[in-house]
């Protein structure tokens, strides 16, 4: 089993992980919306799109989790997927949008941003600790 922190969580790589996470979240939205269109997986086109979007979403999520903690990454992925699905479900499937849904969106997005900030702070602290450790390990001339 691997350690509890991603392998290469430097600030630069964490940014790449977050980009993968956002990209993966788009696949999550497509997956959810196309599942509705499958009519119980009886329509071939939407069914194939659903399987492809799910596969791509999981694959790109795995790339994100190389540098983003799994708890943070999955929570943000699911949150963005949920918000995106409700927003586009309203636009595509004419589902109702309520004030309570908007309030929930604000809370979810605020939580995702808070997790992003905490991940960035943790990566910077880790990089500083590794730099200090490397300096301490260098022989004195």
Lay out the secondary structure.
Layout: H1 11-37, H2 44-64, H3 70-93, H4 99-137
Q: Which range does the strand content fall in?
A: under 5%
Radius of gyration: 19 Å
Approximate helicity band: over 70%
Number of continuous helical runs: 4
Main pleated sheet: none
Low-confidence segments, ≥5 residues, pLDDT <50? none
Give the N-to-C terminal Cα separation: 40 Å
Could you say which overall geometry the principal axes of the C-alpha atoms support? elongated
Give me the strand/helix succession. HHHH
Helix-strand category: mainly alpha
Mean pLDDT: 88
Number of strands: 0
Characterise this structure.
There is one protein chain. The protein has 141 residues and is mainly alpha-helical. Helices cover 79% and strands 0% of the residues. It contains four helices and no strands. The model has no long low-confidence stretch (mean pLDDT 88).
